[in-house]
Structures are given as C-alpha cells and as structure tokens.
Amino acid sequence: MSRPLKPLFKQEHSDEISNRSANPVFSDVASAFLSRRRFLQMGVVAGAAVSFPALLKSPAAWAVESAISRPSSLGFTSIAVSTDDTVRVPEGYVARPFYRWGDAVGLKGNLPEFKTDGSNTTDEQAAQAGMHHDGMAWFSLPLGGDDPHHGLLAMNHEYIDNGLLFKDGVANWNLDKVRKGQNAMGISVIEVKKEGDSWTVVRPSEFARRITVNTPMKLTGPAKHHALMKTEADPQGETVLGTMQNCANGHTPWGTYLTCEENWSDIFVKKAAPNALEKRYGISDSDESYRWNEVDPRFSVDATPNEPNRFGWVVEIDPYNPQSTPRKHTALGRFKHEGAAITLAADNRVVAYMGDDQKFEYIYKFVSANKYDASQREAAMDLLSEGTLYVAKFNEDGSGTWLPLVYGQGGLDESNGFASQGELLIKTRLAADVVGATKMDRPEWIAVDPLAAGSVYCTLTNNSDRGKEGKAPVDAANPRANNVYGHIMHWTEENNDPASGAFKWDILVLGGKPDSADEKAKGSMNGAEFGSADGLSFDHRGVLWIQTDVSSSTINKKAYEGMGNNQMLATVPGTNEYRRFLTGPRGCEITGIAFTPDNRTLFINIQHPGEPGDDISDPANPTAVSTWPDGDKNGRPRSSTVVIVKADGGIIGS
Ligand code: FEO
Ligand code: CA
Ligand code: CA
C-alpha cells in the first residue's frame, strides 16, 4: 500500500486559522471612537513611527498592588542567551533532569527500564513516562497538607514524535504502533520526595498512575448525553475513552489536577467534506497527521462521526486517588484548550480562565454556579459541572466585557444553530463568534496574581497572520501586524472580583528585541529579551515566571536570530525588568511550572529536545539536533521534568 512518506506527527501548535467568522474584530468598531492620532499613539498603524501602545501599563500604576509581600526585585543575575545543548541556570542554582520519557512511573511490580533504541513495547510504555511533558502541578502529601518535601507531580504528555518512539519510525505502520503512541500521550502522576539534599521519584508508589488515550472518563455538564456526544461504543454519551494533546493545566483548591485538550483535531481525519462544525475546529482530510485513523476507526471521522465532539474539553483528575475516574467537564466549553487557571470569586464561586490557542481565537472564563466550601471536598468535585461560560471582548478604550455563552441569550438559539446549552458548548467557538468576542493572537497560559485579587495575565504567543490581507487587522489588544514575538496581556476584574462581568485591560509587555532599530520588532521589556511567551505562572511570592516556545523551525533563526534556545524568565510585575533564569537544550521548548509550597524547589519541563525544524525525528539519526539529557550520541533525546534548587537551599528567585 502506498503512503505519503512524510507524515507530520508533531503539529504541536495548530497555528493555522479556523476562525473565518465575520464577527467584528476590534478595529472595525474602533474607528468610530478613535482618531488616527490615537492609533498613532498606540502604534497600531503599519509603517508609522510608533511608540508602545498607550495601554502598556506604567510602572507607577503598579506601586499599590506590589506593596504586600512581593519582593521589589529579583535576586539572581540574568544569564546569557544560549545555543548549547544543555540546561543553564544562574550561578548558585542546580538543575537536574528528573523524570524523563521512558522512566518508570512507579507502578507496583511494573518498572520497565527505558531502552535507548526505541524498542520498549506498547505495554512497557504504559508504565513509563510519556513523551513531550507539558503542564504540571504539585500536590503535597498527605491531602490537605503543605509539606514542601513530599508530594505528587501530575503532568501532561502533550504529543509524540514517532521518529523517536519507534526503532524504525513509521515503517510497517500498524495498530500496535498506534497503541504505543496512545500510551505515550496522556498524564503521569508520580510521587516525589526530598531526602537530604536530593529529590527522588518514589518507586513503587501507591499513587503512581498513567492516564492514556484509552483510559475511561466520565462526561459531566450540559453536553453529557447530548446526541452529538453519542457513539456506537457509548450510546448514552457519557463515557469517553481517554484524553490527548494535553497542553497546559490548572489545579483546584480541593487538590485536583486539570488537564486541557489542545490540538486534538490534528488526530482526527475526515476524508469526506467536513461540515461547518468540523471546519471551525480544523478537522481536515490531511494525511499529514498521526495516522491513527488508518487502523483505529475511532479517529476516522468518516467511521465515527461524533468521536471528535468528545475531545476539546478540560479534564479533572484526582491525583490522590489512582482508582478515581477522570471527568471531562463540558460546562467549561469545547475548544483547543491551552490551560485552566483557577481562582475564587469574592463569594467563593470557582472561576476558571482559559485560552483557545489558535490564531484569532478567544479567551474564556467559567464561573461556577455553586460556592466552594473547603470542608466539603466531595461536593467541590462537582463545582466545575455547572456554571456560566463567558468569552472576552476587549474594547479599544481599555475596558472589557465578559459575554455570556448561554442558550437563549444574545442570539444563541435555534436561529444560529443552537438548540440547547449542551449543543452550544459542543460548538463553543461558533457561539463565541455569534456574540462578537475579540479575536486574539493565540491565547496560551493564563496566570492569576496570588497577591492582587482579580488581576490576571495571559500570554499571546504570536500571530504572523495578524494584519495580513484578508485576515483580521490589528486592534488595541493585538496591536502589531505580523506579531511574530507575541505579547502578554493583563486585566483587572471590576471590583477586583473574578466573577465580574467587566474588566479593565492593558498590555504588560510586548515580546521582541528592545534594542531593535525596527520599531515593529522592538520588545518593550527592560533586561532580557524574549518572544513567543507560552508558559506563565506566579510563584508563591508574586513573582511572575514566563517560559518561551519559539517553534523548532525558528529557534535562533529568522526574526529570532541571536535569541538562542528557548528560555524561562522572571519579572516582578510593575518593574518591567525581565531576567533570564534558564535556557534549554537544542530544539526544545520550556514549559510546565510547579513550585513547592516553600518556594524552594521548582519543577519545570523540557519538551521535545532535539526536535528537527519541520519534521519528525529521523529514527536513523535521532540525535541529529540534541543528545539531551543523557548525552548519548547513540541514544535518543528525551523530554524530561527538571528539578531546580538553590545550592544553599534558599528561595527560588531570591
Ligand atoms: Fe500546547 Fe498552545 O501550546
Ligand atoms: Ca503551550
Ligand atoms: Ca507549546
């Protein structure tokens, strides 16, 4: 059987455009309010001599908010950019690969060793770390405590590289290979412990768990039991097998992990013409896919038309109970979920902020119907099953509105193709189009300031299509055409209450090179330059940490020439000073952030070290780009969690 020889098994970012809706982007309406002079001030007119957008917040405006216990500055010396094939951290810090792809997860009586030639079996892979570690969270042991030396790490394995996963790559394609790939995705839960100065993965552990693309999970919320969620294998529309393409994450105050399904549509293939819903979510007939559809009919949309509707959700996992069934919460909407940043409203309702990572997609917020009661963990487990989903509209004057996505309101009814709340949620993107949400430059991670109620940040990683002929033009919130460096948004909820319907927004920083002579390439930061911010999280002291994901084909090239390998930075909001804390090995992105409660240990993930620019790895030469972390030219590069401590045991960043 002849096959295309170049299946792309990576497609980490679906950065193509699915949103061709005609809902006005901001600048269509802005002209009614803004003079050309104002546009010039904001730097949104192509070719004009520009200053940074007026909505970049001045350091003075931050003075009040930063008064609590936030440090006034960072305590480490910014490191240089690096193109070396290693992890670099500032002097006084130690970084060590800790849980690599193929390391045993710690299941009792099942601790398979990693084979460096890709020959681990499908069953072995189900008991080992998956590939492409991404979002991650810390949970102290026991439940309810805050021990900084003993806990669980739950983490995502976002995608796979079949050139590394198999000894012979994609040759002799068959169902067993697909199953091994499915076992290399999903989630790991590992038990970790600090003994003396050293962190170890506890093996075996009663908590150790791998969740894969075939682990049963329960649906909750309005789309459960909907006709569009039913399949032959699940005629009730209530039990889905697995989660996949899990990108970033969240964690709840009641000690559960949230994992977010991002580029799931890359896995589904439909040979017949896609319908409007499938098109809006980017399902195509492309053979440049994972090829699971060829041998596992669940991923052929022609064979199993409703299966794609069962992906694109946020999944809640109880890491403290390895027997628990994960739940897919349909109330939080269906899109290409980047992460789910959780906070509590003034009245203790639960709020989740979520980005949809694709060019010109939206930022969402969910507010639970019921309130969190810390003494009722079981009841808390249902909080994400019922509530209101909103989508963000960023107005040109720095105000913003959360537009409710509620059946029967704002045109979200039969006239626009929604017959129920369940249907609306399955078609979340289409509903957001109807209400006129603002098209953003690829919303990635969102972080809530732990020291300033209602103060929220979101990375907009990049959007090279912004302002192109026939594409959405620049607007105040996405102010640069051909936005290759991205920016970080900030907003403050009205009355500092995360449940508010309105907010005020500004831009924290524009990515790029501060010294560039090209105004359009200028970064607005002082200190370490960066672009394509992706990972974003506060530590317990209110320091904001930023991780970059410049695509493998662009690392240290083109617009990113001289900027080195992907990196991690820190800033104290309000200072506009950015320091480079870590640089990664070749071909990787930096992602995943988890601090222990004492802020003295930081876990991060190195994803896809050695990834070639535009293709999967060559199984005949898998170390062409990187040998990290093992340094074995005859081995394979391996995604890995990295544990970072200060050599003197001090607070990270101090
Ligand atoms: Fe998986 Fe949007 O990064
Ligand atoms: Ca990401
Ligand atoms: Ca990414």
Automatic annotation (TrEMBL):
Highest taxon above the source species: Bacteria
SUPFAM superfamilies assigned: Calcium-dependent phosphotriesterase (SSF63829)
Segments of this protein annotated with the region Disordered: 610-639
Classification via Pfam families: PhoX
Name listed for the protein in its UniProt record: Phosphatase
